[in-house]
Amino acid sequence: MGGVYTNTVVLQHHNVVMTRTDKVYNVRCTYEVTSRNISFGMMPIRDPDTMQVTASPEAPLPKIVILGMEGREASTVRIGDKLTFRIEIPDG
Fold it and tell me: Which candidate, 72, 70, 68, places its Cα nearest to that of 80?
């Protein structure tokens, strides 16, 4: 007796705009569901030298700006419009 897992995966390059280069994959995995005994052994290792990190700087949030052909930020677009994607990362 076996199990089946199916899913549809969409590889879309932008989270809003869909283009013809994006791909859709139908994934199907079949697997056995029988019980099995697994044994393993442990090998002792020496603890490596460690350094505790107590804080880290917060990463700035990037912003993606979509520009139309005129160079202004686009509020609506149509399929086939030439667009420019600008990624803005604010200074620290």
Answer: 68
Task: Using only the alpha carbons of the chain, give its radius of gyration.
Answer: 24
Low-confidence ranges of the chain (pLDDT < 70): 1, 92
CA 12 to chain centre: 10
Contact 76, 66 (CB under 8 A): no
pLDDT of residue 73: 92
Alpha carbon separation from 59 to 41, 43, 77, 88 (Å, rounded): 41, 38, 31, 13
Strands 84-88 and 63-67: antiparallel
